[in-house]
Task: structure prediction
Amino acid sequence: MSEPQLWHDVDDYFTGLLAPPDAALTEALRDSDAAGLPQINVAPNQGKLLHLLAVIQGATRILEIGTLGGYSTIWLARALPEDGRLITLEYSEQHAEVA
Result:
């Protein structure tokens, strides 16, 4: 097995274990692809890490710079308490519409 393949397999293992797909995240990626947005969103395990960092920090407010299709926004929003607030900034009108 090549080293790049090994890294892919390890990544797939941890992603499946710690960040299984769900409807909202899957839909965000599908909508981004359908709109032709660049495929530069965070990986599922990176989204889970963002979520975990926000939870550990006890975040009640989050500022996200660069929304793209909203994938990482979903991860971050899920880390907030019910009265939390997430502000996300996106320069591209098209990206903001998709998100």
Notes: The chain has a mean pLDDT of 95. Residues 21-98 form a domain with the Rossmann fold fold (CATH 3.40.50.150). Strands lie at 61-65, 85-89. The first helix runs from residue 3 to 18.
